[in-house]
Amino acid sequence: MSSNYLGHPLLAAGPKIHTVTLGAYRKVPYTQPDATPDTKVDETSNLKVRPLFVDDRQKEWTTGEIHDVTDRTFTVRRALRLNDALPNDAAAHWIWQPGPWLSVDRVTGHITVLHLPDFDFSVSDVVWFRDYAAYCGIATTAKGGLYAIVAELGARRPVVQKQIGKWPEADHFIPVCQPAQWQRLPMRVTLKPTGGEATTYDVVGTVSLLEEGDNSDE
Could you tell me if 208 and 153 are in contact, meaning their C-beta atoms sit under 8 angstroms apart? Predict the structure, then answer.
């Protein structure tokens, strides 16, 4: 008996290839979150933002440089457009702020918001090495506190979480901490509150826990 079966077209087709690109930078007005009417400099400070596209469709606004974690995954910080209008304001008042970090898969085009432990938008200046993020964080407990944090992508608990100062502080340095300093062999990171003492931490473990997706079209 003859058959006219030519094969299922979905089985013959290969995985869809996605294109992930970043557009050109542009400057937007930006005011520090802890600015007051006396210290605010009539919105002369700027934030550099650029769009993130997947298949020529804009998905996010981003700020700062990307960090390549692997040859297919990178991290980049999201830029948020927030409505700063008060309840009795007649119209919306849109402002720009740096937001959380994103993980982007170049193959699937999948974007994941990273929930880094004790991350604070106004305090945490993340410095990446491999799949590790080092920064100063703010405890969300009632006692508060300024913490040295090292987080690994895919891990449930931070690799380092040590209190290094009090928080909140009425008169604090800006920035609150200096950028983390990484060392490769042995793997170590140094974190220093501005005006305080630097502390170096050993980071144990070199196997990435990052789970990259397959090539399927999501």
Answer: yes
